[in-house]
Amino acid sequence: MAIQNNGALDVVTIGEATAMFVARETGDLAAAETFVKRAAGAELNVAIGLARLGLKVG
Fold this sequence. Notes:
Radius of gyration: 17 Å
Strand content: 15-25%
Largest sheet: 2 strands, antiparallel
Order of helices and strands: EEH
Number of strands: 2
Number of helices: 1
Shape: elongated
Distance between the termini: 21 Å
Oligomer: single chain
Strand order of the largest sheet: 1-2
Helix content: 10-25%
Structural class: alpha+beta
């Protein structure tokens, strides 16, 4: 199925993208020395999923 698009968005998500910091080591969080930053948030997850399916999202 080809999606035709005239430059307009197919889907607009409204919400906030958040940052999630994940400790590289397992164990007590207070003892963790390094973290990895990841994108998170329900709206962002939906937008990423729809974009992977070929929709133009914003």
